[in-house]
Every structure is written in C-alpha cells, then in structure tokens.
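Progress note, project year one: complex with magnesium ion.
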Amino acid sequence: MSPSGGSGSKAARFRSLLESPELAFLMEAHDGLSAKIVEEAGFPAIWASGLTVSAALGVRDSNEASWTQVLEVLEFMADATSIPILLDGDTGYGNFNNVRRLVRKLCQRGVAAVCLEDKLFPKTNSFIGEHQPLADPDEFCGKIKAGKDSATDSDFSIVARVEALIAGRGLDEALQRAEAYRAAGADAILIHSKRPTADEILAFAAEWGRRGPLVIVPTMYYATPADVFRRAGISVVIWANHNLRAAISAMRDVSRRVRQEESLVGVEGAIASVREVFALAGNWELEDAERRYLGPPPIRPRAIVIAASRGAALGPLTAERPKCMIDVRGQPLLRRLVAALRDSGVGDITVVRGYRKEAIDLPSISTVDNDAYETTGEAASLACAVDRLEGPCVLSYGDILFRRHLLDRLLAAEGDVVVAVDALQKNRTDADPERVADLVGCSRPHSGNYLDEEEPVWLRQIGNDLRPAEADGEWIGLCKLSARGAALVRAELQAMRAEGTLERASLLEMLSRLIAAGHPIGVVYVLGGWLDVDDAFDLARARNFT
Ligand code: SPV
Ligand code: MG
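Model obtained:
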C-alpha cells in the first residue's frame, strides 16, 4: 500500500490525530499480520512497540534487535496497512546522528512518526527496576531538533517521551523536561507512568494545561475509564502490548492442547481457519492480478473414462471389483490411468461406473453411473456422461495404460476428433491370433519415414470386421475431442438414441458413424508404449509395464 494512501499522507493523518480535540486510541502491533489486524479492527493508527517487536523476534526490550532489524519489521507493517504507524524508537538507537538517519529511513518507508524517550542507550523497559538513569535534557533536545530537521515529510511527527515519573524524579522534573522538549520542536509529549492508578498522569495533565498534545500508555493504570483521559485533555491513548500478550496466551493454549491430545480436533473450531489466513494475506488481490497480468488460465482438457464393464475374462479377479480396479503392482489400474491423465495436464476426470460401482472410490475423480451396464455397451456408458462431454476432452477406456508421451502427442494434435493408433499391432495380433484388437484402416500406413510425419493421417475404417492383414494399426482406446468434436459426439449419441441403436453400440461403432457422416477423424500413429487388460495374459504384461 502506498505510504500516502487514504486522504493525505500517513504522516499527515497521524498529525491530525495528534492535533484533533478528540481522544484517539492506538493499538500495538509487532509485525505485518498484527498490523493488519489492528487496521481491520478500526484503529486509526498503530503503535509499533519496542517491547513487542523485540519479543516477537525472540529478544529482550534492551535494544537487542538492531535498528535496521526493527526497520525491516516496520517496512512489512507499513506495506501491509494503510493507517499511520507511530514507531517506538526507544532512545533513537544512539545520539543525534543516529536519530537523523533513523528519521530519514522512516520517512522513506512510510512510517508516520517516531517516539523517542529520554533514557540512555541501550534502553531498559520502563517496568523493569527503579531509578533508571535519564538522558541529559539538552542532549535529548538536540536529538529532537536533529530528527525534525531530517524529516523529508513535513508532516512527520516526533513524540518526546518523558520518563521522569518512571525514574522517580517527580512531577516538577517531568514538567520541566516536557516543556524543554516541546520548545525543541516535539510534536507531542508522551508522559509515562507505572503506577496502578492514573493519579500522577492526571496531575501532570492538569499542570501541562494543553500546551501541546499529550500521549499516555495506561498499561499499569488500565482500570481508568477512557472518559477520565478525555476530560483530562489527553490526545492519544496507546494500548501498548495487548496483541502480543493475547497471541502468547492463545499460542500457549493451542500448543499445550495439541501436544497433550495428539489431535487437532479439540482446537480446530476455536482457531482462525486457513481461509482467514489467506484472506488476511490478501490472496484475492493476487488472484485478480494473475487474471490481469497472466491472462485467463489455460483451458485444461477433461477426460471421460469408460469403466462400466466387469472384464469377465479375468474370472475370479473381477468377482468383487471391475477390472479397472484390479491391482497392478500395488495400485488399482484406474489409479495409474488417472495419474497418467493428470501428468498430461488433464483436469476434471469423470469415470463411468457400472459393475461393482462402489469399488471405484478414488479421490479426485467424479463418477457417473451406467446402472444398465449388463445390457448396454460403451456408447451408452459414454451417453451417461454426456453433460461432461465438452471439449477439449479425452475419451479413454478404463482398462488401458500408456506412456505419457502418447497422450501428450494426442493432445497436441490438430483436429476435432483424433485417435491414437498403434502401428505395431501386427506384431501382437500375429503373436496371439485369438486377441481381439480394435483394428483400423487409415489414409496411409505408418511409414517410419521422417518426411511423412508432417502429412496428416485420417481414419478410414474402424472395427473388428477388418482383417489384421488389411489393418494399418490398432486403436489404443484413447480419443481426443476439441470443443467441436465433443459437440459432434454428443449429436451422434443423440441420433443413436433416437434410432434405438445407442444401447448396444460400442465406441468403434460411434466412431464409424462419424466417419460415415463425413466428419474427418485424425490419426496419431504410436509405436507401442501402451497396453490394455482384457485377460490374465494382459494383466501379467500390465504388471511388468509400470
Ligand atoms: C513499548 O511498548 O515498548 C513501550 C511502552 O515502550 S512500555 O512497555 O510501557 O515502556
Ligand atoms: Mg518501548
């Protein structure tokens, strides 16, 4: 967020808080997250507490964190918010010269104001010990002047913190110091007290008589009602450390409970959701920006997997489950198929179930059911998923496995309907004449010739009535559809239903009808690298495949 976001710069807005007759409240924050929470709660400004920034870094409030480390934290806080930040700058981390550099850096990073206290470097927290030594007032006035002279934003404020009451020096010295600091150019006086009541603060305010804005930190006199401060003419109340203390209590409770219970169940409902974390981090903005700068996300192809049949040739192996759920080296075949589809960038995967449908229970897929699987064929199964049939889309049998490059090539191929054809099928059908292959005839055979690969190949014929000797290859059970191709297939399924041929038809028949209707079907030739599982022999090959 810009340091000058909102109306006026952050420094200007802080200055008007100081100068307003209304009492303003600042809330402590110690990092980007807590700063966001303070802004979200509606506070007009943030107190970047030395105590809590240190504690959040795991160190003491004794200038153990270097000033540049504090500056880093502040930069995150300022970037994360649009309200002004008043930095607890301790003693200024050195002398007037260190204050000059500090103030310049704070202006650069959009911090609205700094509070400097009249103690010695390295400082000690005001609530530790008694009679802490104080800075020489003249030397401290020099720091205030140096800070004012170095501000590159004319609205940057310096709040001078008087520690005389903390150090037990009494009201008179506190007033003298405050007056000297005001005269040196301080924009406000922070008068601090560690008494359990507000008496000495109120006495100070009465004597001060509204000579300039007064800031207080009622950590110890917390029971005093805000109206008392209003009547005393206080400008700003700082709730100095309460977010850090709240976080400590909450984190302790959760850590102890989770450790004891060895479970998250007891805490889940009581803590912020992960969604809230994303919201606080502003994830929506990144999503917007991605749309603006990266363009629309690429359309991922979807897949429809036809897996309704039992696979009876596998005998008892499919007694309890369909063949797509048969174990192939420790994983169901379908899980391997789904992984292969995902590897090639497929998004939504719909599996058409039928036989023993309850056995198909993979996460990350959706399912539709062909409950008439016993009396219907593949086309009817595909028709069950017709409302998912939108391109780009991959149609796949549920009992195949293939190497990734096959699907990559199919997806990259041009054409509305494209099938992957194995040109090496002859070797297989010759070896096993019983094998039923989805044979195809194409516009030209696979030649292996480098130059031929440029030439498109078209499907001329597909079906089991082709003799192996006439075939150019075997359809491997993978088909790619463009948006138009998906529409063609939807229309064909509808026509088949109207004719009463849908129920019994195979996918081969559906593809044949597309060819007959004059719709070109492209062919991508592959050379092995896949298998289907029809019988025990195939299964043995599948178990060696992966
Ligand atoms: C701080 O929050 O770091 C302060 C206030 O300086 S106090 O801890 O009260 O000194
Ligand atoms: Mg402090």
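The pocket of sulfopyruvate (ligand 1) is lined by residues 49-51, 61, 88, 125-126, 217, 219, 240-241 (CB under 6 Å).
Residues 1-5 have pLDDT under 50 and may be disordered.
No further modelling is planned for this target in the current period.
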